[in-house]
């Protein structure tokens, strides 16, 4: 294994040389299970547990392969994954299962990134991964509608039934249960918000924001006319669950990403994206006027003061808690007894606060350096696909202060892996080969 710049890449197959989809699924099955395979995973009840698999499976593959190349930019992420276990010393034994689960998510971010850099692209084509990510986006839209139809459903999955008494453990139950909505009353009345396949509506919204660029590339941009027509219909259908989720963080991700994209294109003298943005604004405004979603959105914006106050209290406590334990952190989120009942634990509601409070300032610094470098590198836009990868990372940056990005951090690793593939893409059809490619 070695850490070096990405010269002499492994062989990259042309589109015509791509292997059948079933072969890619067999090779990259941990990624398929958390993306295109989410619906069957939830049907069985492994939808929560499946996010641990990239860290475990790809980690073993990388360690077993002598020629594994770790890009130089991965060093801060390696340091983060190595630093997190130091926080074990400050948590009780009962907290180890959840601590291990969360550590495997960060390990999955690293291993997914490095594995995609090393694996033969003939076996795992980048566009197939993009299609899988888009399939997850479409699945989330479908789950959004199920949340409105079955807002009160909360029942053990087949896996939950099989494990018997273990399903009484909250950690196991939350990872395997069938639940499509998270009903909240912060607006003065019950609001069922889309949540599946995650544990919260904020996680659903976070994933939608990160995955939207991949849906656009897979179904609307650079595709056949027939596929584009289907994609536009799907996009229109998705507007409703996005609005009724009353998820301000998701809305902000989409707005910032759209404005960023349109501005960069306009600076290059291309104004089509700006025109599309304006049309989109008008269309959404019309939907808000002629449908009940308008009243819901208005209520959400008018009654957000309580939510803002709760978040502000959590952020203040996270900062003070990090000052008390600046190196190893507190290891796990902590409930503050003096805050109002129902307030989430300190150390949640934002990856920045999570890392700062749970694992200390060095962990936070390592993550910020890694993600910052990857965002800058991906912004060089070497290929058309680079645009959509870069926009997904921009959405991640926007969400860091207010979304925990758990388990989405694995998707961020996948995105960075795709970015590195595009960065090494040759400008000519000929591509050098390299022996010993990881499989």
Structure write-up:
By secondary structure, the protein is mainly alpha-helical. It has one domain (2-322, 368-423). It is built from 19 helices and 4 strands. It has helices spanning 21-27, 29-34, 38-44, 53-64, 75-83, 96-118, 126-149, 158-162, 170-176, 201-219, 225-244, 248-267, 272-290, 293-302, 305-324, 351-359, 361-378, 384-399, 409-423, and strands at 2-4, 69-71, 181-184, 191-194. The strands form 2 sheets. A two-stranded parallel sheet has the order 1-2. A two-stranded antiparallel ribbon has the order 3-4. Strand 3 and strand 4 (191-194) form a beta hairpin. Helix 10 runs parallel beside helix 12. The longest helix is centred in the N-terminal third of the chain and has 24 residues, at 126-149. The chain is globular and about 55 Å long. The relative contact order is 0.14.
Write the layout of secondary structure elements.
Blueprint: E1 2-4, H1 21-27, H2 29-34, H3 38-44, H4 53-64, E2 69-71, H5 75-83, H6 96-118, H7 126-149, H8 158-162, H9 170-176, E3 181-184, E4 191-194, H10 201-219, H11 225-244, H12 248-267, H13 272-290, H14 293-302, H15 305-324, H16 351-359, H17 361-378, H18 384-399, H19 409-423
Parallel strand pairs: 1-2
Antiparallel strand pairs: 3-4
């Amino acid at each position: 294994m070695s850490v070096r710049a990405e010269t002499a890449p492994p062989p990259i197959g042309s589109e015509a040389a791509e292997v059948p989809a079933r072969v890619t699924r067999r090779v990259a099955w941990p990624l398929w299970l958390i993306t295109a395979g989410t619906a069957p995973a939830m049907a069985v009840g492994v939808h929560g547990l499946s996010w641990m698999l990239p860290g475990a499976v790809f980690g073993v593959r990388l360690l077993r392969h002598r020629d594994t190349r770790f890009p130089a930019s991965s060093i801060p992420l390696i340091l983060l994954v190595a630093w997190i276990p130091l926080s074990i010393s400050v948590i009780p034994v009962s907290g180890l299962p959840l601590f291990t689960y969360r550590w495997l998510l960060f390990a999955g971010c690293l291993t997914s990134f490095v594995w995609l850099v090393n694996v033969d692209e003939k076996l795992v084509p980048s566009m197939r991964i993009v299609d899988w990510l888009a399939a997850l986006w479409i699945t989330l839209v479908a789950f959004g509608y199920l949340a409105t139809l079955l807002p009160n459903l909360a029942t053990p999955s087949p896996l939950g039934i099989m494990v018997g008494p273990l399903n009484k453990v909250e950690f196991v139950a939350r990872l395997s249960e069938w639940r499509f909505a998270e009903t909240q009353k912060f607006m003065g009345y019950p609001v069922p918000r889309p949540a599946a396949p995650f544990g919260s509506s904020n996680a659903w919204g976070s994933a939608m924001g990160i995955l939207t660029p991949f849906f656009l590339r897979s179904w609307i941009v650079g595709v056949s006319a027939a596929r584009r027509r289907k994609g536009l219909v799907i996009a229109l259908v998705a507007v409703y669950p996005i609005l009724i989720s009353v998820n301000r963080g998701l809305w902000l991700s989409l707005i910032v990403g759209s404005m960023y994209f349109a501005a960069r294109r306009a600076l290059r003298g291309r104004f089509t994206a700006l025109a599309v943005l304006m049309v989109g604004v008008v269309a959404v405004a019309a939907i808000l006027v002629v449908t009940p979603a308008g009243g819901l959105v208005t209520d959400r914006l008018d009654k957000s003061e309580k939510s803002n106050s709760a978040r502000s209290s959590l952020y203040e406590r996270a900062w003070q808690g990090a000052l008390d334990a600046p190196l190893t952190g507190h290891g796990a989120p902590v409930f503050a007894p003096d805050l109002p009942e129902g307030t989430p634990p300190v150390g949640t509601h934002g990856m920045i606060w999570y890392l700062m409070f749970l694992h200390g300032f060095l962990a936070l610094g390592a993550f910020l350096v890694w993600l910052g470098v990857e965002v800058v590198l991906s912004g060089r836009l070497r290929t058309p696909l680079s645009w959509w990868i870069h926009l997904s990372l921009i959405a991640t940056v926007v969400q860091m202060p207010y979304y925990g990005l758990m388990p989405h951090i694995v998707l961020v690793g996948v995105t960075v892996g795709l970015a590195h593939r595009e960065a090494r893409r040759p400008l000519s059809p000929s591509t050098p080969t390299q022996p010993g490619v990881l499989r």
